[in-house]
């Protein structure tokens, strides 16, 4: 028997714990080409919200009663695929489940290394890859340019800023609260940090922190944050839209809306959205570079781990209020 | 003595006739390197509104009491520059004035040709060049892609659509009223036309007219029109922002705002604004191509000419209600 969280009701606005239901199920034995895995860590990812409203997004919507999906790392208990053996560590997208039967072709074997296995869900997972391609392929900051990052203490934002810094950019982060801001400055080497909770006028705060204008804005938030940044962009600035957390839980008619569009003309701005899976063929190469950066200490990351599968919905709801600090994970099983 | 329109009060929202004052002035004689010109046509351009609110935009704001600026074409009456002689036709930016004294280096001599001189303010002027670079440099439609154009019966929009058509694109225009829509279909060869006044749901109308999705959206309007188009974009669609007429007269807090930003991620969209003057070094080359297109009948244009300098403010105010049909000009002097 194995426990799993399923979607209990479609989420129209911000998520609540009651949107999920914990079920106990009997898993089938693995078929040919399948694996039975035991979950070690499951990720709790704000981007998942876009699939929980019952309407199509860049991934098909999750149906009611279906197990919550998301990246997870686990240990193979039983293998019916020649490439895997019991004891192997694998990463997949089986979600908030204690155990799962998964197709071997849907998982990636974790390379042995000096990193905790949970890092496969953060710095070496989709957040790290999103930061990598967002900065190096889309934003492409030049040395001396100012790079602004929103949700800067999050998994994508913190890595984006460090990668931009390695390109020689001046890096400014927007985060919530003095603790996160201090971490950006003292641990990650950001040049400036803006505590949006302490700033009644975010646009003015960005302008003060970026006196030469923002060359690249890597935005994970959207909404009012995006609108505040647009007037602060440098001529020919680029906005890379890697996430729009502010919009995920809000129906269009109630969104703040981007009103500073005339700056696209006056400042010749470019805004581009992307989905990191489009770069899947280059994941291995990027991941190798990320591993190198973590090994030599030039890339740092932070995890927010809560104990037990039970914690997942509460942690998920909290993400939209900034209660986490670092990549949000639940520890589901002991290593 | 010469008459000119000056800015009587800053325009915070939509323009009214009373925002301008007609003055009679005595012009100084031209100094060394200057010309005295008599205006034949003055352009009435919605984009000018961005300079009339007393705040900086991509051009410095016009001060109270200053003559209204804008493209004009005229005849040289007196020259103190060796490159010009009385009788030459020149294009400059001296605005809504019967006569002007201008620096010879601020004007361009009109090449003799088979076109009416007024065309220098439209198809061979900034609107034509905006369409040219907007489609060929930014939008770059591929054969078979659908190009959507807003304000499609306007000077920029009508040329953009025709240029996109020449690239092999399928072209859909948004315009106000059945007369303009018929012109797009019957005279310019657009593949479809959407009368936004007859469509309660613009997004649905765009979707019907662009079943394969919009590859390139050349937007002259912004606001609700931009928001309606975003969900209809094809994967990796490009939005070229060449004008935002819907936003010019509206303070940010009262703008509709772009709310469909999540489509930037889901559809990997790119949005880019531009100012055509950035391509000034290539104007002559583009203008030669535009002249060729008009000569061989493959590019058509339409002018909305009203008689007399007096008509300019009323025509300007009407632009924001779509009362013009074609490039708006006033005829100031007889050829």
TrEMBL record, chains A, B:
Identify the Pfam families for this entry: ADH_N_2, ADH_zinc_N
Name the keywords, alphabetized.
Oxidoreductase
Q: Give the signal sequence positions.
A: none
Occurrences of domain Enoyl reductase (ER) (ranges): 16-330
This one is known as NADP-dependent oxidoreductase
User: What Gene3D superfamilies does the record point to?
Assistant: Medium-chain alcohol dehydrogenases, catalytic domain, NAD(P)-binding Rossmann-like Domain
């Amino acid at each position: 028997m194995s426990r799993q969280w399923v979607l209990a009701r479609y989420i129209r606005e911000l998520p609540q714990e009651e949107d999920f239901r914990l079920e106990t199920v009997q898993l089938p034995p693995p078929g040919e080409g399948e694996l039975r895995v035991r979950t070690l860590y499951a990720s709790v990812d704000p981007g998942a919200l876009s699939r929980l409203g019952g309407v199509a997004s860049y991934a098909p919507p999750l149906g009611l009663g279906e197990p919550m999906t998301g990246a997870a790392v686990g240990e193979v208990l039983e293998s019916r695929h020649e490439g895997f053996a019991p004891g192997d560590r694998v990463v997949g997208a089986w979600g908030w489940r204690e155990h799962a039967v998964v197709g071997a072709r849907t998982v990636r074997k974790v390379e042995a290394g000096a990193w905790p296995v949970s890092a496969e869900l953060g710095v070496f997972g989709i957040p790290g890859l999103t930061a990598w391609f967002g900065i190096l392929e889309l934003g492409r900051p030049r040395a001396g340019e100012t790079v602004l990052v929103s949700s800067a203490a999050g998994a994508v934002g913190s890595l984006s800023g460090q990668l931009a810094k390695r390109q020689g950019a001046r890096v400014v982060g927007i985060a919530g609260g003095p603790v996160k801001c201090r971490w950006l400055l003292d641990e990650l080497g950001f040049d400036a940090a803006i505590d949006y909770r302490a700033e009644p006028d975010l646009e003015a705060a960005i302008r003060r922190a970026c006196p030469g204008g923002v060359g690249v804005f890597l935005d994970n938030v959207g909404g009012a944050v995006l609108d505040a940044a647009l007037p602060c962009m440098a001529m020919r600035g680029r906005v890379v839209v890697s996430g729009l957390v502010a919009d995920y839980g809000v129906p269009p008619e109630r969104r703040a809306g981007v009103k500073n569009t005339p700056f696209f003309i006056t400042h010749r701005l470019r805004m581009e959205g992307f989905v990191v899976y489009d770069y899947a063929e280059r994941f291995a190469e990027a991941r190798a570079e990320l591993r190198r950066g973590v090994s030599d200490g030039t890339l740092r990351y932070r995890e927010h781990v809560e104990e037990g599968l039970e914690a997942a919905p509460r942690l998920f709801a909290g993400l939209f209020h900034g209660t986490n600090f670092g990549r949000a994970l639940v520890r589901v099983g002991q290593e």
